[in-house]
Amino acid sequence: MLALPIRAAFLQLFQQDFLQKQGDIRFLRALTLEASRGRIVDRNGQLLASSSPVKSLWANPEIMQPLGISQLRNLAELLDVSPEALNRKLIASGREFVYLKRRLDPRTAQDILDMRIPGIFAETEFMRFYPSGESTAHVIGLSGSEGKGQEGIELSQDGQLTGRNGSRQVLKDLRGQIIADASRAIPPTHGKTVELALDARIQYQAHKAISSAVQAHKARSGSVIVLDAKNGELLAAANYPAFNPNNRQSAAPEDMRNRGIVDAFEAGSVMKPFAMALALEDGHATLHTMLDTRSYKIGPATVRDVAPRASLDMLGIMQKSSNVGTSKLALMSTPERFWRFYNDLGFGRKPGTGFPGESSGTLRDWKTWRQIDQATMSFGYGVSGSLLQLARAFTVFANGGLLLPVSLYPQTMEAPSRRVVSERTAALMRDLLVANSQAGGGAAAARVPGYSMGGKPGTARKLVDGRYVADKHRASFIGFAPGKSPRIIVAVTVDEPSAGQYYGGAVAAPIFSRVAGDALRLLNIQPDAPGQPILPPMPQDIPADI
Fold first, then answer.
1. Which strands form 166-172's sheet, in the order they lie side by side?
2. Residue 223: partners with Cβ closer than 8 Å, 6 or more residues away
3. CA spacing 20 to 30 A to 330: which of 69, 178, 241, 264?
4. Would you say 392 and 344 are in contact if contact means Cβ atoms under 8 Å apart?
5. Which parts of the sequence belong to the Penicillin-binding protein dimerisation domain (predicted)?
6. Do residues 483 and 427 make contact, with C-beta atoms less than 8 angstroms apart?
7. Which residues are catalytic?
8. What is the rounded average pLDDT of the residues 463-481?
9. pTM, to two decimals
10. Could you give the domains of the chain?
């Protein structure tokens, strides 16, 4: 009798901490209260990505009774695994906690819980859903199974979207059932909503247009960029092939890349307006300057036009897409001045959008140039950029000579801009590009019913093993609308069309027409050229054979 109180006193005085700790290990559990990842919405509040609560099932094999054959078979069928694999997981785990399946749909999870198998429990987690599916997949990106951003906006805005988990300490009995709270719960802090400048309506139409065009022309891929010409906001960035972010198991890594932002390429004749603008800006030429546009040599290389003419003025050089005329205008500038102008347009530098993997393109140091390098750069060879960079460079023509930054998010104040050319030069170039959509111009197939527009097609031969080949092309078109007061800039590129046509004026220009028309109507921009006829294309933008 004396030994019992002595033993009790010993345990209370000298073993209390140890015994308390052992009790906590057996019965005290810290539960994570998972925070919901923030939503992503477009400029109109349309939901593009959200997290919804789902059930994850786990088991404690230590307290589970052996399952009967029919019970094991039914459970395996609901979990979409073989009975043998399920049995191995339960028997061989040697743990008190093993996931049966995470993020099950609510109906399946409830069917399993209704089986009332001792030792099987459910916890609430969050699963990411993308209501727009393929159309916005390349912009929104992906988050992983642990709720961390992996691609696109999900990655670049992971800090804003990721919340902070809460916690709750509870007491559980031997069967794992919660019998009491052990401390005050710390609630989770959910992630913030991220609003994009993207217009989901325009994005959807752009995605449809580029998807159908790539398939119709049997092309390798295609991309469309739509910018607000007034503030540089990204209204759409569509690519094809695409992938379904809600079912990514079958998606190839190649299809998950936002090609319009991360891929750089030689664009061909869409670069010609920049060389023409520099000549006008520096006073080397006027609209009435006549240039000899017959073939000529620079060292061993010959610069030629596909449809040569003896001479052309600036409008003729634009409409006939003259390599000879453009190169001669470019060579009126010193290499340093020419390089600085292209650099001011954003080539060779990242656009600064913050999008993961955005391309800077290539613009080599002018000190390494030969004369032929400067000549070919004027019509799109030897310099590369992403479709986004090309679209951004056209803001100079659409916005009075100012280069605008591109923003993925709505702008609440006037965007900071940098003057590249004067308002007069920008207005002259805008008029030339609008004239290029008239009879005799290469942009005729890009015309939008009811609206004026301006733009330039381009067709570039692709570089394969150090040589430009004749059977692989990239067709592009960049333009703006309405032509008199641009509100949008649309850039299109189609890689390796192989169904017969490959010129920018025939392949990419009609995509511009469709996307620009949809965007103008969705933005409620009033037509400025009612009754405007659609003219047949004039595909004279074939690259020089150099």
1. 28-33, 166-172, 178-181
2. 210, 237, 238, 239, 240, 259, 260, 263, 387, 492, 493
3. 264
4. no
5. 33-180
6. no
7. 269
8. 93
9. 0.85
10. 25-195 (3.90.1310.10), 200-246+257-522 (3.40.710.10)
